[in-house]
Write a structure and sequence with these properties.
Strand order of the largest sheet of chain A: 3-2-4-5-7-6-8
Number of strands of chain A: 8
Number of domains of chain A: 1
Strand content of chain B: 25-35%
Shape of chain A: globular
Mean pLDDT of chain A: 96
Oligomer: heterodimer
CATH architecture of chain B: 2-Layer Sandwich
Bound molecules: thiamine diphosphate, iron/sulfur cluster, magnesium ion
CATH class of chain A: Alpha Beta
Low-confidence stretches of chain B: none
Number of strands of chain B: 4
Structural class of chain A: alpha/beta
Chain lengths: 264, 76
């Protein structure tokens, strides 16, 4: 993309080089776009475009490889971490990550998720939790909140009938194979800055060969939630964060801590 | 002299307004016109921009480039 050169002004922020010029197909205000961009910024800054391999999921981000200008593979629904395992084992010197939604990672792919982390596969798993199946029309996900209205829970999720929101990130943090586990968001500039720092650490840890890094990103789905992008940001703060508080969950060298409730 | 400015790719912008809410200087607003995709797009509406990059950080479509006044090198 051509960006203008302005006299006496220097560019302090521009789209990362590792993002292609293909416009995102995502709905207006969708957090997938921010998550893609920040991930590619980190790869740019670490200078590892040539050495990174991503695995795209099934879900709205199925076409992630149209946007991320790195080597990528698309996996069957839920199997991204299994595919990433194979790639990393064959090419251990590469940086490998999976990028998965909540339906992909925490429903159909639950077994792959748990066993990938339990084996301590030396990859990064990026988990986009928008508490819904965005791609297929807003059905309930395992991470949907109690009372949340979705197309398959028109009267709100009733935990007595269909169970409680699954905090899969806290669950996998218990496993010895998990090296670094954190939950972040993309709804404010500060949240984006913190996410970027965590992603950077996760890629750096991958060189140490110590186990799985897992970063959950609490995101939105304005279309599935039937809210405007701005309303969806407010809904995240009021409803998602009490259930999915932001912060580090497992930090190398420290015992498991409860995530902080600091949500900016 | 302005401290900073932004260039917004109006053909990519989807008018989500997240940048507008993130701007501490209230420098952004939605256009009256629509772009080829059918969205109103974000525009700079005053000279108060400081080049803080907040808008670019939250833009889901990577549509924003931010500029800041170049630091004038002092003569030694
Ligand atoms: C084996 C299989 N089962 C079901 C589907 C239908 N399907 C496509 S995407 C999806 C869920 C996507 O939700 P999520 O992973 O949360 O991604 P999002 O779109 O919300 O980002 C489902 C169930 C499929 N493609 N393949
Ligand atoms: S359906 Fe939801 S998750 Fe999918 S692109 Fe639209 S807003 Fe994003
Ligand atoms: S750079 Fe900062 S001040 Fe300028 S428009 Fe963006 S958010 Fe507003
Ligand atoms: S955040 Fe990006 S896509 Fe949304 S209105 Fe602003 S420039 Fe347009
Ligand atoms: Mg989802």
């Amino acid at each position: 993309m051509e960006i203008p050169v302005l006299e006496n002004l220097e560019v302090v922020y521009k789209k990362p080089e590792t993002l292609t010029d293909t416009p995102f197909h995502y709905c207006p205000g969708c957090g997938h776009g921010v998550a893609h961009r920040v991930l590619m910024e980190v790869i740019d800054e670490l200078g590892i475009q040539e050495e990174t391999i991503g695995v795209a999921p099934v879900g709205c981000s199925v076409f992630a490889y149209h946007y991320m200008n790195i080597d990528m593979q698309q996996a069957a629904h839920g199997r991204a971490s299994a595919a990433a395992t194979g790639i990393k084992r064959v090419l251990p010197e590469k940086y490998v990550f999976s990028y998965q939604g909540d339906g992909d990672l925490a429903a159909i792919g639950t077994a792959e998720t748990i066993h990938t982390v339990n084996r301590g596969e030396n990859i990064l798993m990026v988990f986009i939790n928008n508490a819904i199946y965005g791609m297929t029309g807003g059905q309930m996900a395992p991470t949907s909140l109690c009372g949340q209205v979705t197309s398959t829970t028109p009267y709100g999720r009733d935990p007595a009938k269909i169970g409680f929101p699954l905090k899969i990130t806290e669950l996998i943090a218990q496993l010895p194979g998990a090296y670094f586990v954190a939950r972040h968001a993309v709804h404010t500039p500060n949240a984006v800055r913190k996410l970027k720092k965590a992603l950077r650490s996760a890629f750096e840890y991958q060189k140490l060969n110590k186990g799985t890094c897992f970063i959950e990103i609490v995101s939105n789905c304005p279309s599935g939630w039937k809210l405007s992008p701005l309303e969806s940001q407010k809904w995240i703060e009021e409803n998602m964060f009490p259930m999915y508080p932001l912060g580090d969950i497992k930090v190398p060298g420290k015992n498991i801590t409860a995530p902080s409730t600091e949500n900016n | 002299m302005i401290r900073g400015t932004v260039f917004i790719a109006s053909d990519i912008c989807k008018g989500c307004e997240l940048c507008i809410a993130a701007c501490p200087q209230h420098s952004l607003s939605l256009s009256r016109q629509i772009n080829p995709k059918g969205y109103k797009y974000a525009e700079l509406i005053n000279d108060e921009c400081t080049g803080c990059i907040n808008c670019a950080l939250v833009c889901p479509d990577a549509a924003i480039t931010v500029y800041r006044q170049a630091k004038v090198k002092k003569a030694v």
